[in-house]
Amino acid sequence: MPTTALHTVLGASGTVGRAVVDELLHRGLSVRAVSRSMDKPGLTVVPADLLQPYEAQRAIEGSTHVYLCVGLPYTAKVWKRDWPVLMRNVIAACTANDARLIFLDNVYMYGPAPLQAPFDEKHPQEPVSRKGAVRKATLDILKTAMQDGEVQAVIGRSADFYGPYATNSLLYVSFLERMLKGKAPQLLFPPDIPHTYSDTVDIGRALVALALAEDTYGQAWHLPVNPPITMEEITAIFNRHLGTSLKAGMLPFWAQRLIGLFILPLREVLEMNYQFRYPYVMSDRKFRERFPDFEVTGYEEGLGRLVQYFGNPKAQAATPATP
User: pTM for the whole thing?
Assistant: First the structure.
């Protein structure tokens, strides 16, 4: 490994990628952002198609730490086609450069549903969705490479997240986007089911903490979350920040299924509904015990920041588009 550390963030213009870059810069570390559209002073911005082995090698060349924070279009077909290829290319490039890999994972591989409440890193991995099956297959590729000594890696698993730039976040699409227009939130699930969420700023900080610790590699870690919260409680927080009194409504399941026959994005979301029809409580105990001084952003502050960002057209206009 080179004597001078170079932290390369793949997917640096994405929601979490930006948070990782910000944390690395805050720590005064050398950063390379791999992105087609990000522009930050002092950064080497490298455009790359990670589905091409040569471009993955070029993007990672000289790196000591590589953060895989890439987001693919939210369809099972694209995930099945692209995630295994992307993972193999990144592993090969990390191996060639003796770079450590920090993988931003999700929790889709856990099953069967409903999950244990709370569930931790040892929960059975029997995915109940097509996207969950792809994520497990991709994770298995990485785990095999780790076991074979091909790459040194750490896995950080995030709950559903929210934060600035997160236009695909459930808390924006179903909630804040509508509330900013004076419309009531439209839910696809009951509003009183507890669910855990992560703030993207916390995810970025946590991934860097895992990357810099010597004893975290070779393991999976649930990234820090807030206590479980219901959609009713989230609506109340948004109302306080917006000065409104809107109430969340739920689209009946039969109507969801009917609309899903004609609208692909909704159909892709519906297969993940098991996460919201039952209590979905992720345990971050392992991370908190290893990093007892890590402070998690509270919902009032985090959701307030979300309102401030998306309610400010000037802030959004100044933000480069995510590829």
Answer: 0.91
- Tell me how crowded residue 179 is: count the other CB atoms within 10 A of its CB: 23
- Position 302 in a domain: no
Q: What is the pLDDT of residue 177?
A: 86
- Of 135, 286, 146, 287, nearest to 217 (Cα)? 146
In a domain, residue 49? The reply is yes
- Are 271 and 278 in contact, with CB atoms under 8 Å apart? no
Structure tokens at 260: 């899903």
User: Over the range 45-72, which residues count as b (16 or more CB within 10 Å of their CB) and which as e?
Assistant: ebebebeeeebbbebbeebbbbbbbbee
Return the H-helix or E-strand segment holding 9: strand 7-10
Domain-embedded: residue 290: yes
In this prediction, the residues of the chain whose per-residue pLDDT falls under 50 are 1, 260, 313-323
Model pLDDT, residue 266: 54
Residue 16: HSE in the Cβ half-sphere, 13 Å Cα cutoff? 31
Pairwise CA distance, residues 278 & 283, whole Å: 16
DSSP states of 77-140 as a string? HHHHHHHHHHHHHHHHHHHHHT-EEEEEE-STT--SSSPPSSB-TTS-----SHHHHHHHHHHH
CATH classification at residue 65: 3.40.50.720
pLDDT at 88: 98
Q: Which of 20, 70, 16 is nearest to 48 (CA)?
A: 70
Q: What is the tally of structural domains in the chain?
A: 1
Whether residue 40 contacts residue 319, with contact meaning beta carbons closer than 8 Å, is answered with no
Sign of torsion over alpha carbons 145, 111, 163, 175: positive
Domain span including residue 94:
7-161+198-225+282-296
Dihedrals φ, ψ of 174, to 5°?
Answer: -85, -20
